[in-house]
Specification:
The complex is a heterodimer. Chain A is built from five helices and four strands. Chain B is α/β, with parallel strands linked by helices. The longest helix of chain B has 15 residues. Classes of the chains: A alpha/beta, B alpha/beta. The interface between A and B is large, with 32 and 41 residues.
Chain lengths: 152, 331
């Protein structure tokens, strides 16, 4: 029996809503796929598209971006900025051959642990269906990236 | 042979604009001649690779290397010049970040050959394709082989300094020539290895005199569709895609000053890891919409975001090439 492909997904959460939603899910013992590695930012507006590219170029099969619902941003309207960046980034990545389905934006309030868990499970299945991305590990990474590795 | 320090300049996959920019330093070129012995400069004087191979290692003080790594000949000469030079400068956008030749990384090599030799613009009735080796009575002739993707100079050899620009501005070249001459005379010190020289540390916007009003825009336009452009207002805020916010300063905002958008030839500004990603941020910030459908319709005004954001930088970006390139050619 061949092993099922387990996608590696990097998930970005915001401190005020979606990270708390993940916390809520945990407190309520709601299970969700372990494929996603959550990284907490202060706000979805902090999400530099560079993070997404670095994740994909570094071996991730998909990237999940989460934030507060429109109108609920702790920093008033930075999640709208995240939305615009996400839509433009998805177009840019499509030009590089990255399927639009590999990056997803989800809104989740602090109370929506169940919803977030459900969305994560669904996204994992969507990326699983797309298969591995396997972006090449260029053997000529610039010194800057090597430096990051050394620190880590 | 004179005792003057030796100078070389080489072009790999490039257009020759960098050499013209060097000659555009006008009478300063006499200083180059007065202080250096030009030993190798294919575009300006006759020389053979064999002559360079016979030179002692590290015998050339300064080599300005322009052009990207498109084929195995480019890479071979990159290694040769590295071995023979004390200071190897990645000169111009092609060597530093791949530039326009780097856009070839969006396609597989065979597709590039097809377009060049089989499309309606090429009169090739007998379907003749260049071969990398060919038998003649005297022996076998070889042509360079295309790399699967375009690389930058620093992805192939160790580079001492980077000098961006397509081409580097002549006043910046003159300043670098002055600096090297002062170093030779013991009046100045070289910057730390790996520095970007002949450019600023900020963005083109910083040098641009146009006013920014944090205005939001409802549509993107091609520059010829906006007539006339307001000469005092930020070009991006007038809806014309301008790459200034992510682009390194050093050109004195030459294009925006004369009413043309910045296309980003000076490459990423200091601290920018991925040039295109930074532009995604900048462009998304001026879009005046909150509903996904409206945002999408505004973004339709940028028909080729990948080309817009990576016109000069694809070969040095985090992704380097598109899937259609590396899945076909390997890597």
């Amino acid at each position: 029996m061949s092993e099922q492909f387990e996608p590696v997904i990097v998930g970005f959460t915001c401190n005020w809503c979606s990270y708390r939603a993940a916390d809520t899910a945990g407190t309520a013992r709601v299970k969700y796929a372990p494929n996603v590695r959550l990284i907490r930012l202060m706000c979805s507006g902090r999400l530099d598209p560079t993070f997404v590219m670095k994740a994909l170029a570094g071996g991730a099969d998909g990237v999940l971006i989460t934030g507060c619902h429109p109108g609920d941003c702790h920093y008033i309207e930075q999640n709208y900025k995240a939305l615009r960046r996400f839509l433009l980034l998805r177009r840019t990545l499509a030009g590089l051959g990255v399927e639009p389905g590999r990056i997803k934006l989800i809104w989740a309030s602090a109370a929506e642990g169940l919803k977030l868990a459900h969305e994560i499970n669904q996204f994992v299945e969507e990326v699983r269906a797309l298969g591995p991305l396997n972006w090449p590990k260029w053997n000529d990474q610039p010194a800057e990236i090597d430096a990051v590795k050394e620190v880590a | 042979m004179s005792n003057k320090p030796k100078f070389a300049m080489y072009w790999a996959a490039s257009c020759g604009g960098c050499e013209i920019a060097v000659l555009n330093i006008h009478e300063k070129i006499l200083d180059v001649d007065a202080n250096f012995d030009v030993v190798f400069w294919p575009v300006a004087m006759d020389a053979k690779y064999k002559d360079v191979e016979e030179m002692e290692d590290k015998s050339i003080l300064l080599t300005l290397f322009n052009g990207s790594m498109r084929n195995d000949e480019n890479e071979k000469i990159a290694h040769l010049m590295r071995r023979k030079s004390q200071i190897l400068v990645s000169f111009g956008s092609c060597a530093t970040e791949g530039c326009v030749p780097g856009l070839a990384n969006l396609f597989p090599v065979n597709e590039i050959m097809d377009v060049a030799f089989h499309t309606v613009t090429t009169d090739n009735p007998n379907n003749i394709l260049p071969q990398t080796s060919f038998e003649v009575p005297e022996g076998t002739l070889h042509l360079p082989t295309m790399n699967s993707r375009v690389k930058t100079l620093a992805q192939v050899v160790d580079v001492d300094y980077y000098m961006p620009g397509c081409p580097p501005e002549s006043h910046q070249i003159a300043a670098v020539v002055d600096l090297v001459i002062q170093v030779l005379q013991g009046k100045a010190q070289l910057p730390p290895k790996g520095s970007v020289i002949g450019a600023g540390n900020s963005t083109v916007c910083d040098e641009c005199p146009r006013a920014r009003n944090v205005k939001m825009i409802k549509a993107f336009h091609r520059i010829q569709e906006v007539a006339p452009l307001d000469p005092t207002l930020c070009i991006l805020e007038q809806g014309v895609p301008c790459n200034g916010p992510a682009t390194r300063s050093g050109c004195n905002a030459r294009c925006p000053r004369v009413g043309a958008q910045c296309i980003g030839c000076y490459g990423p500004a200091e601290g920018v890891l991925d040039y295109g990603a930074r532009l995604v941020t900048a462009f998304a910030s001026v879009v005046d919409a909150k509903e996904p459908a409206e945002i999408e319709s505004i973004l339709d005004g940028i028909p080729d975001p990948t080309g817009q954001f990576y016109r000069f930088n694809l070969a040095d970006s985090l992704m380097r090439a598109s899937t259609s390139n590396w899945k076909k050619n390997g890597h």
